[in-house]
Amino acid sequence: MSQSNQYILGKETKKRLSGLENSLDTATITYLSKIGVAEGWTCLEVGAGGGSITEWLCQCVGPTGHVVATDIGTHLLEVLDYENLEVRQHNIVADDLEVEKFDLVHIRYVLGHLPERELVLEKLTKALKPNGWILVEDGDNMTHQAEQKVSPPHTVELYTKVFGALKQAMEASGLAFNLGGNLYGHLVNLGYKNINTMGAFELVRGGTKASEFYKMSTGKLKDLVVGMKLSTSEEYDSFVALFDNPDFALWSYATMSAWGQKPEN
Ligand SMILES: C[S@@+](CC[C@H](N)C(=O)[O-])C[C@H]1O[C@@H](n2cnc3c(N)ncnc32)[C@H](O)[C@@H]1O
133 forms bridges with which residues in the sheet? Predict the structure, then answer.
């Protein structure tokens, strides 16, 4: 199982993360707005990546608010220029956090990578003020499969086979494929109140901007899967090429978003 300081996807690029931001930000901002993030709030964005939600938070909380954006790699956050932003190089598993400091904690597509996810959720809960809000978002494999009505059968077969190998390799590295569906339960177990949970997924066609994200992500993991002898190099390349094939489509992971309010002590 991987150590939490060995992020399986390595150093992030804005190009890959903007694929995620383009698909997810509208929904995330809707949930943050429902929570009622407002001027003067103190916010923590964990594993902030390319920083699009960090930017939104900085604008929303204004000069009387404060945003702490953390990541193990902060190179994409350091270019952001907001007076109320503190960028912190920080490993959410290994490093300390303030206690009862934040009105809001947001963490999206980070916990699934961390074998220590339950301990991290406890740490984030401690970091919230009483009545503070958490918004946790992560993927779930429940919807993810090759589209089967239009995609040619050989592409469906190839995708299903090699994705199965990729899933096996990633699970062996500690990655969770069912975290999204468990977020509600985690918040209940931690005693949160006013919990809401929403999910969203999309059809991703080959050769589109959305499929570029899948192409870049799966491409990064070739050495892992081939090195474990779960796929051949040629077969893996054909799998990655599906994301450029306009005849092929897949149903994305479901992104599950759960938010709730920490009870008063
Ligand atoms: C899939 S990206 C998501 C980025 C951003 N949250 C978003 O949704 O657009 C995961 C991010 O978590 C960061 N990360 C991975 N392990 C981490 C850790 N242990 N502590 C803090 N950040 C971590 C990565 O560097 C990366 O920027």
Answer: 104, 261
Query: What is the β-pairing status of strands 145-146 and 128-140?
Result: unpaired
Task: Quote the CA–CA distance of 176 and 111 in Å, as a whole number.
Answer: 8
Residue listed under structure tokens 């594993």: 47
Identify whether the C-beta of residue 247 lies closer than 8 Å to the C-beta of residue 147. Answer: no
How far does the centroid of ligand 1 lie from the alpha carbon of residue 13, in Å?
Answer: 11
Decide whether any atom of ligand 1 lies within 6 Å of the 108 Cβ.
yes
pLDDT at 4: 45
Output the six-digit token pair for 3. 């150590």
Please list the residues that pair with 128 across neighbouring strands.
102
Low-confidence ranges of the chain (pLDDT < 50): 1-4
Residue of 1, 6, 7 with the most ligand 1 atoms within 8 Å of its CB, for mutation? 7
Distance CA 214, CA 224 (A): 16
**CB-ligand 1 contact for 92 (6 Å cutoff):** yes
Question: Cα separation of 215 and 246, whole Å?
Answer: 13
Domains and CATH numbers, the chain: 14-261 (3.40.50.150)
User: For residues 230-260, b (16+ Cβ closer than 10 Å) or e, as one string?
Assistant: bbeeeebebbbebbebeebbbbbbbbbbbbb
Is pTM, for the whole model, over 0.90? Answer: yes
